[in-house]
Design a protein that fits this description.
The complex is a heterodimer.
Chain A lengths: L15 E4 L2 E2 L2 E2 L1 H17 L3 E7 L5 H7 L4 E6 L8 H14 L6 E5 L4 H12 L3 E5 L1 E9 L9 E13 L4 E6 L6 E5 L16 E4 L11 E8 L12 E5 L8 H10 L4 E5 L1 H5 L20 E5 L5 H7 L4 E6 L12 E4 L2 H18 L10
Parallel strand pairs in A: 1-4, 1-6, 4-5, 5-12, 6-11, 7-11, 14-15, 14-16, 16-17, 17-18
Antiparallel strand pairs in A: 2-3, 8-9, 9-10
Helix pairs in contact in A: 3-4, 5-8
Chain B lengths: L4 E7 L1 E3 L20 E3 L1 H17 L1 E8 L5 H10 L3 E5 L9 H15 L4 E5 L10 H9 L3 E11 L2 E8 L2 E7 L3 E5 L11 H11 L2 H4 L3 E4 L1 H4 L14 E7 L8 E3 L4 H11 L13
Parallel strand pairs in B: 1-4, 1-6, 4-5, 5-11, 6-10, 7-10
Antiparallel strand pairs in B: 2-3, 7-8, 8-9
Helix pairs in contact in B: 2-5, 3-4
C-alpha cells in the first residue's frame, strides 16, 4: 500500500441508508433484503446501517427493522403518509437527508413500484447517480482516468458497485458514481438475502418531522386496493409453467393452464414478448422487467431463454425446457431439454401425469381454476 | 384549456433485440448493424397520449432524444396521429445517463411549451431503468403517476389507476402531470390508412417534413452542455463482465415420439412429487 495518492478528498464518509417500504402496514420483503445487502456494505466500510421508514401507525415496525439488521431507525409516522404518494414521501425523504449533518454514503430502495417511483425523484433532486434494479451490490475501489471531465479523475477507495444485467447482452454491468453522495441504487426484489432476525436486538429509534406544503397535495390517493390473489402468486408458486412466443398464439396458454392444473401450487409465467403482444397480462411476466421467481419446478414452453427471461428464473430448482429449436439458448441452462412441438409434448405430459395420478387413485383435476 | 390539452409523449429508438440482425454470435448487440425500433413500452404511452387527445381534445407532440435515425420513430408516431414532433440530436449528448437525459428533456420541454400531460413509456428495453420519467417530473416540479394502467379526466383532473405490488392505487391528480404508462394499458391501435398515407407522402418532401419534425440541439433549447453527456452524468459503466458461463449440463431429449420423450424425462426426474394429490401419498 505504498505511494497511493491522497484519497481523503474522494473518500466520502457517511452511513448506509435503506428506505423501508410498507404497504398498509405490511413491511415489504424487499426491505428485509435491502437490510441484508446494506449490512454487508456498511460492515465492509465500518459504517452504520440506518433505515428510514415512512407510514402511519407503524407500531412495532421500527423495532422489527432493528431486529432485521438496522443500527438506527428513523420514523416518519403521520396520517398523511398512510398510502404511498410521490410528493409527500419525496418531501419527507428530502427534508430528512437535508437534516443529516452528513449525506449517507449509499442510499438503497427496493426496485418495486414504490422504490422506482421515489428513488429517481430523490436522485434528481440531489443530482446524484442512481442505478436501477441491481442484482448485486458491493463496495470497492475505482480509478477514474477518463479525461472528458478532469475534475473526476482520481482513485476512489470506497465506491458503491451497483451491478445489474445489461439488456439484450449476456453481460453484467458494474455501474458507479462515487463523485457525489448518496450513491443510490434500487435492488430487484427476491434477489438479496435478508439477515437472520435477532429478536430483542437493540438500536436507536428517532422520530422524523413531517412538514408538507400545499404543493404536495396535487395528487391524492382515493383508494389502495390489495387484490385477493386470484390463484397462486407467481413468486410463491412451487411449480411455474412458462409460455413464450413459441406457443404461436394466446390460445396456447389454455393448454399451459391445463398442464399447470395437474400440479399442486402452480402458476403460469410468461416471457416479455408474449406479454407485449397482449397474449397474457403483465402480472405473469417473468424476467428482467417482470418477476424474479424460484419455483421448485419450471417448465418453459416455447421460451427461447434470452438473458432477460433467464435472469428471472434461472435459480429455479428444476428447469425443463420444451422447444422446437435445438439451438435455443434455453437448452444451455435448462436441466432437461425436450426438442419438439409443444402441442405434442404438453398434451402427452398431461396424459402421462394423469396416468400417474390415477395410479394413485387420485382423480386428475383439469381446467378447474 | 379552451385550446385543448397540450399533450406530450416521450419516445426512444432502441435496438430491435427480437430480430437476429445485428446480433453477434455471443448474444451481444452490434448497435451499428442492429435493426432499430420504437421502444415497445412507448407504444403504450403513445396510445395513452392519442386517447387523451381524441377524448378530451388538444394536440399531441412527440419528443425524442437520439441520433438522426431516430427520425424514423417520430415518423411512426406521426403515422399514428401525433401532430408534431421534436428530435433533440446533439453529439454532446453521447453517453448521457438517466439524470443527464432527464435534464436535456427538461430543457426541451421548457423550450417548446407548457404541458398539461406528459406521457412516457414505463421504461426502455435497452436501459430498463424506468428512471427518466420520474427524474424529468422532478426537474419540472410536477406530480407523477408511474405504472399507470388506466386513466380518465374529470373536471380537469386526472383519475388514474396505478399498479402496486399485489394490487393497485386509485389516484386523482392535478395537471400538469407526468404519467408513465404500464404495458397493462391498452395496446397501440393500428395506424389509420389515411394517417399513414398522409405521412408517407409528407416524408417524400424533406422541406415539408421539417414543418412537422423539428430537429433541435442543446444550444437552441438553452441547455448547459456540461450537464449532459458523459460530463453531466453522475454514473458511469465502470466494467462489464460476462454473466456466468452457461453450464451445458442440460440433458437433451430428442428424435423420439412425444410419448417416449415425456417418458424419458419422467424417468430421469421425479416430477410426480409436484403433482396434485402427491401430498396424500
Amino acid at each position: 500500500m505504498s505511494e497511493q495518492p491522497d484519497v481523503s478528498a474522494f473518500c466520502p464518509k457517511g452511513d448506509v441508508l435503506v428506505i423501508a417500504e410498507q404497504i398498509l402496514g405490511d413491511l415489504q420483503p424487499v426491505t428485509l433484503e435491502l437490510l441484508g445487502a446494506g449490512r454487508l456494505l456498511a460492515d465492509k466500510m465500518e459504517r452504520n446501517l440506518k433505515c428510514l421508514v415512512l407510514g402511519y401507525n407503524l407500531g412495532d415496525i421500527p423495532q422489527k427493522l432493528i431486529e432485521a439488521g438496522a443500527d438506527e431507525v428513523y420514523v416518519a409516522d403521520d396520517k398523511e403518509l398512510f398510502s404511498y404518494r410521490t410528493l409527500p414521501y419525496r418531501r419527507v425523504v428530502i427534508d430528512f437527508l437535508d437534516s443529516l449533518p452528513e449525506a449517507p454514503h449509499t442510499c438503497l430502495l427496493g426496485s418495486t413500484t414504490t422504490g422506482r417511483d421515489l428513488a429517481p425523484r430523490i436522485s434528481a433532486h440531489f443530482d446524484t447517480g442512481l442505478t436501477a434494479d441491481c442484482t448485486e451490490l458491493d463496495i470497492g475501489p475505482y480509478e477514474h482516468k477518463n479525461k472528458v471531465d478532469p475534475s473526476k479523475i482520481g482513485l476512489y477507495p470506497n465506491c458503491l458497485y451497483a451491478i445489474r444485467p445489461s439488456f439484450g447482452e449476456s453481460l453484467k454491468a458494474r455501474i458507479l458514481g462515487p463523485w457525489k453522495n448518496p450513491q443510490m441504487a434500487t435492488t430487484r426484489p427476491g434477489v438479496m438475502t435478508p439477515n437472520k432476525y435477532e429478536p430483542g436486538r437493540k438500536g436507536k429509534i428517532t422520530t422524523v418531522p413531517v412538514k408538507l406544503i400545499p404543493e404536495d397535495y396535487r395528487l391524492i390517493v382515493a383508494d389502495t386496493v390489495r387484490e385477493v390473489s386470484k390463484g397462486v402468486k407467481l413468486t410463491e408458486a412451487d411449480v411455474i409453467i412458462g409460455g413464450g412466443y413459441g406457443l404461436g398464439s394466446a390460445d396456447g396458454f389454455d393448454l399451459l393452464r391445463q398442464l399447470a392444473d395437474t400440479f399442486e401450487n402452480s402458476a403460469i409465467g410468461a416471457s416479455r414478448k408474449v406479454v407485449d403482444l397482449g397474449w397474457i397480462p403483465y402480472q405473469h411476466q417473468v424476467g428482467q422487467t417482470g418477476k424474479t421467481v424460484r419455483p421448485k419446478l419450471y417448465i418453459a414452453c416455447g421460451i427461447s431463454g434470452a438473458i432477460q427471461h433467464r435472469v428471472g428464473m434461472s435459480k429455479s430448482g428444476l428447469i425443463i425446457a420444451i422447444n422446437k429449436d435445438p439451438d435455443s439458448p434455453i437448452f444451455k441452462f435448462a436441466h432437461h431439454g425436450i426438442v419438439g412441438d409443444i402441442y405434442q409434448i404438453v398434451p402427452e405430459m398431461i396424459k402421462q401425469f394423469a396416468e400417474i395420478q390415477s395410479g394413485r387413485g387420485v382423480e386428475a383435476v383439469v381446467g378447474s381454476h | 384549456m379552451s385550446a385543448g390539452l397540450n399533450i406530450y409523449v416521450l419516445v426512444k429508438q432502441v435496438p430491435d433485440t427480437g430480430s437476429k440482425a445485428g446480433l453477434n454470435p455471443d448474444g451481444t448487440i452490434d448497435r451499428a448493424k442492429a435493426k432499430r425500433m420504437l421502444n415497445p413500452f412507448d407504444r403504450f404511452a403513445l396510445q395513452a397520449a392519442l386517447h387523451a387527445k381524441r377524448t378530451y381534445g388538444g394536440k399531441v407532440t412527440a419528443i425524442s432524444m437520439g441520433p438522426p435515425p431516430a427520425v424514423e420513430i417520430l415518423l411512426e408516431t406521426l403515422e399514428h396521429g401525433v401532430d408534431e414532433a421534436y428530435l433533440l440530436s446533439d453529439r454532446r449528448l453521447a453517453a448521457s445517463d438517466t439524470l443527464a437525459t432527464a435534464y436535456a428533456l427538461y430543457k426541451v420541454l421548457n423550450y417548446i411549451g407548457k404541458p398539461d400531460l406528459i406521457f412516457c413509456g414505463l421504461q426502455t428495453t435497452d436501459g430498463d431503468t424506468a428512471q427518466v420519467g420520474p427524474q424529468l417530473a422532478e426537474r419540472l416540479g410536477l406530480p407523477q403517476v408511474t405504472y399507470c394502467e388506466d386513466f380518465h379526466m374529470e373536471d380537469g383532473k386526472v383519475h388514474a389507476r396505478r399498479i402496486i405490488e399485489g394490487g393497485y392505487q386509485k389516484v386523482v391528480a392535478e395537471t400538469p402531470l407526468l404519467l408513465t404508462v404500464a404495458n397493462s394499458y391498452h395496446p397501440l391501435e393500428y395506424k389509420s390508412f389515411r394517417g399513414a398515407w398522409r405521412v408517407r407522402r409528407l416524408a417524400r418532401d424533406q422541406e415539408e417534413l421539417k414543418k412537422f419534425i423539428h430537429t433541435i440541439d442543446l444550444d437552441l433549447v438553452g441547455a448547459d452542455p456540461d450537464r449532459t453527456g458523459l460530463k453531466g452524468s453522475p454514473t458511469i459503466v465502470a466494467a462489464t463482465e460476462k454473466v456466468g458461463e452457461l453450464g451445458g449440463s442440460c440433458k437433451m431429449h430428442e428424435g423420439q415420439s412425444a410419448h417416449e420423450l415425456v417418458g424419458d424425462v419422467l424417468k430421469a426426474s421425479d416430477l410426480s412429487q409436484f403433482l396434485v394429490g402427491a401430498a396424500q401419498k
